[in-house]
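Data card: per-record layout.
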Amino acid sequence: MTTATSLLLIAVGAILAFAVSFQVAGINIQTMGGILIVVGGIGLAFSLLTLAGYAPWGAGRGSTVSAPAAIVTSANVATPTNAGPPSNV
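The structure for this 89-residue chain is written out next.
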């Protein structure tokens, strides 16, 4: 469940719980709204906790960071001394 879906569930649940006075036989609209608010809140907490793993400040928690690879430049590459064909030809 994404953050937007969770916020949508919370909004619809709040509308049903607090703004609707319509009565349906066998269904309590206010209780359905409360359930949607709770489910949306749980989904929002779960999605935010999942996204916290992608945060740049959370990358050092529990993960090892390796040293960067060596940068190859012309200064640290050996140049061949004999540019001719191999001697065994």
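Known properties of this structure: The chain is about 45% helix and 0% strand. Helices lie at 3-19, 29-52.

See the next section for split statistics.
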